[in-house]
Design brief:
Blueprint (H helix, E strand, L loop, with lengths): L13 H14 L5 H12 L5 H15 L5 E2 H5 L3 H4 L3 H12 L8 H9 L4 E3 L9 E4 L2 E4 H20 L6 H15 L11 H9 L4 E6 L5 H15 L9 E5 L2 H16 L3 H6 L9 E2 H5 L20 E4 L7 H10 L5 E6 L12 H5 L10 H11 L13 H4 L1 E4 L7 H11 L3 H10 L66 E4 L4 H10 E2 L2 E2 L3 H9 L6 H12 L2 E5 L8 H14 L14 E4 L13 E6 L7 E7 L2 E6 L6 E3 L2 E3 H4 L4 E7 L10 H8 L2 E8 L4 H8 L8 H6 L1
Parallel strand pairs: 2-3, 5-9, 5-10, 6-7, 6-8, 8-9, 11-22, 14-20, 14-21, 21-22
Antiparallel strand pairs: 1-4, 3-4, 12-13, 15-16, 15-19, 16-17, 17-18
Length: 724
């Protein structure tokens, strides 16, 4: 029960009364300790009303949840849902203010009150470097206001300042010539080759944003864009400096591998006519910018910029606000920046949702007359009139890819249904699953849409669910509403389709999946652990290590939360015990042969970074010693296990940490109650990590429906700044 500070026998000053209420919620684990500390810091540097302090607490809490600012309209209303507090907990905080002070009734009243506080800088007034910034109807921590402002101005400058010059007609003709060589004619949805369009638009300025779901060919398009850049760079071809980067090592390796494959697949006629160049290795953003130990500053910045002509960044949805500001500052204005990513995936763990803000309405196009004319001249395509508009300079440099070549069948349809908020459609796809009779084990089918609480309007958006025609359906694969062939028996022990739903799930279901996957969908960790037990034999040790790593990467269990029975920590422990009981591993201490680990903090001494995943194997050169092996594309790097300090076991990992990866069989585990954690972006991201098979486990099926109905909305002023 939350202590009531009003029960104290000694009357408390208004600010102290509020801080006591904050401390009570902090001790109960409902608020971060940092929030109370920040409020006390603000109180220590000037006169502080309880209204200001509660605004500071809320601002700090929202920053921890990925918001870059606090909307005054939320503050004037009921911010409890944003914080995951129940009504009684919020009442304890608000009551500590209203017992002695009035509560501002609207955003205007809050703005007037905050503007008069000495710790707050209202933008436009004299700036005394106060820690809080009030910009319009938003309250910021100064560093986030600075980062957001810098990102907005840098992105707009690139979109507006890099257009073709007086020789535009000649340049456009050259782009048209090479694009016709690079892209063969074909039949496309709504008559547009969006990959070809994306390449043309990126050539038009110093900024190109290519967004789209899994399998829509983002790296395929950017590989052809690179070929186009080399072909049109004239005498500079030999010196065109290209850098490839991504937020994580895994994503960087996949980017380089995908581009190499796409370039190698160019038609021989094109390769003969076009100069080629070997690309360097892809790097993490931290490595690219020159991260330094014990500081947030980078070696490359506005005063020491990167030596590049073209920078291609994949998985841009994972880039948080501070990192994007640093990247843009370090990039010369003469360089071309290409951002790739899925705007509908989870945003970064840290504050900001930059890619989502930059291309939040990319599906609508919003292209002005000048852009439409340029696309027609450079690609020979006329965009349908419903993509016309005047959406601003960023939209003119953004293209959304719309045809998935990888995600046919139920996985792609399920991802689309979740992304559209179509709960009924998602349930239907999960229940049919590509041909099986039901979604779960015999006698335990997934929920029927008629018996669960679907959100109003079913899809939650007023829009129709996904159109199966937008995916290339493989033979004999069921589509939503069109089940495949009947199963051999109605009592099969598990679901055998591409998609399966086990509900209500029990821990035993998860542990069985961790061992061997499910019927018709191979997976589990037995296969790689058998390879570990067999050892390299007389074969090449490096080849054996690569085989083991590839076997491990075919399957993964993803969690929505870290703690609890259905969270990362609980499941990793349970899976370890189950694999040990099966004789597949020996866990005598923290480190053991076969242990998969994830790095949780950048370690510049060993060259491993947050999110890197490796496998613990015996060191062939030192009997009794263990090394952790990390896959980097076609290469392997290893570090002595004793040198790795910040790691955790990774049989199960969070959905956030899985971004930039894909697995042949992906298992997504939702908790029993996810009201304050789950939203459709998390479910969508988990689904799209699956390449061939997807299994969903829900102890409570209603949680899935609640998540699909909930869309993540991060408070940000970036869109507003971009439109000013």
């Amino acid at each position: 029960m939350t202590p009531d500070p009003s029960s104290s026998p000694v009357p408390l000053a208004p600010a102290a009364r509020l801080l006591a209420a904050v401390d009570a919620l902090t001790e109960a684990g409902r608020l971060r300790r940092l929030s109370a500390a920040f409020a006390r810091f603000i109180a220590s540097i000037g006169s502080a009303s309880p209204q200001l302090l509660i605004a500071c607490v809320l601002l700090s809490e929202l920053e921890g949840r990925g918001h870059s600012c606090l909307m005054l309209s939320e503050l004037a209303g009921d911010p409890a849902p944003l914080l995951g507090l129940d009504s009684s907990e919020w009442s304890a905080l608000r009551g500590a203010v209203t017992a002695v002070e009035r509560w501002p009734r609207n955003a205007g009243a809050w703005r007037k009150l905050l503007a008069e506080c000495e710790q707050v800088w209202p933008v436009g007034d004299l700036d005394f470097q106060q820690p809080l910034v009030l910009d319009g109807e938003r309250l910021y921590l100064r560093r986030y206001w600075r980062d957001e402002t810098q990102v907005a101005y840098a992105v707009r400058a690139r979109a507006l300042g890099g257009l073709l010059a007086s020789d535009a007609e000649q340049q456009t003709a050259a782009v048209r010539h090479w694009l016709d060589l690079l892209f063969a004619p074909g039949v496309h949805a709504d008559g547009v080759d969006w990959q070809k369009t994306a390449c043309a638009v990126a050539m038009r300025g110093k900024l190109g944003i290519i967004t789209g779901g899994p399998g829509t060919g983002k790296t395929y398009a950017v590989a052809r864009l690179l070929a186009l850049l080399f072909a049109t760079s004239g005498g500079r071809q030999s010196g065109l400096r290209v850098a490839l980067a991504a937020p994580t090592g895994k994503a960087a390796a996949r980017l380089k591998q995908s581009i190499d494959v796409a370039l190698a697949g160019l038609d021989e006629r094109v390769r003969a006519a076009m100069p080629q160049r070997e690309l360097g290795a892809a790097r993490t953003l931290h490595s690219l910018l020159g991260a330094r130990p014990d500081t947030r500053a980078f070696r490359h910045h506005a005063g020491n910029q990167l030596d590049v002509d073209v920078l291609i960044v994949d998985e841009a949805s994972m880039i948080h606000l501070e990192m994007m500001a640093a990247l843009l500052a370090a990039l010369p204005s003469t360089a071309t920046l290409i951002l790739l990513g899925d705007k509908d995936q989870l945003a970064s763990v840290e504050a900001g949702a930059v890619l989502g803000d930059l291309c939040h309405n990319a599906q609508a196009g919003g292209y002005d007359a000048e852009t439409l004319a340029y696309v027609q001249a450079s690609t020979g395509q006329q965009l349908p009139e419903h993509y016309a508009g005047r959406a601003g300079p960023i939209a003119q440099q953004t293209v959304m890819l719309r045809e998935s070549r990888r995600f046919g069948g139920p996985i792609g349809q399920l991802a689309l249904a979740v992304n559209h908020g179509d709960a009924a459609g998602a349930v239907r796809i999960l229940r049919t699953g590509g041909g099986a009779d039901n979604a779960g084990r015999a006698g335990r089918p997934g929920p029927n849409p008629a018996t669960v609480s679907l959100p109003d309007n079913a899809n939650g958006t007023g829009r129709p669910g996904p159109d199966p025609a937008t995916f290339s359906q493989p033979d004999n694969v069921a589509q939503a509403g069109r089940p495949g062939p009947a199963p051999a028996t109605a009592s099969r022990p598990d679901h055998a389709g591409q998609v399966a739903w086990i509900d209500p799930a029990q821990p035993a279901d998860l542990l069985q999946l961790a061992l061997d996957g499910r019927a018709g969908a191979p997976g589990g960790y037995r296969a790689y652990l058998r390879l570990v037990q067999d050892g390299p034999g007389m074969d090449d040790h490096l080849a054996w290590v690569q085989t083991v790593l590839k076997a491990f990467e075919t399957f993964r269990i993803l969690c929505a939360v870290r703690d609890g029975e259905w969270g990362v920590s609980g499941l990793n422990d349970a899976i370890e015990k189950r694999l040990q009981a099966a004789g597949l591993l020996r866990r005598g201490s923290e480190w053991y042969v076969g242990r998969p680990v994830m790095v949780t903090r950048n370690d510049y001494g060993t060259g491993v970074f947050n999110g890197d995943i490796g496998l613990t194997l015996a060191d062939p050169a030192r009997p009794g010693a263990l090394r952790v092996y990390f896959s980097e594309g076609d290469a392997v790097r290893s570090v002595l296990a004793t040198r790795l300090r910040n790691v955790e076991t990774a049989f199960a990992m969070t959905v956030h940490k899985s971004q930039g990866s894909e697995f042949r069989h992906t298992v997504l585990v939702l908790p029993k109650d996810g009201r304050s954690v789950l939203a459709r972006e998390l479910v969508y991201t988990g689904i799209t990590r699956a390449r061939a098979f997807f299994t969903l486990l829900t102890p409570n099926g209603q949680v899935l429906l609640d998540a699909i109905a909930q869309r993540t909305q991060r408070a940000s002023g970036l869109r507003d700044l971009l439109e000013r």
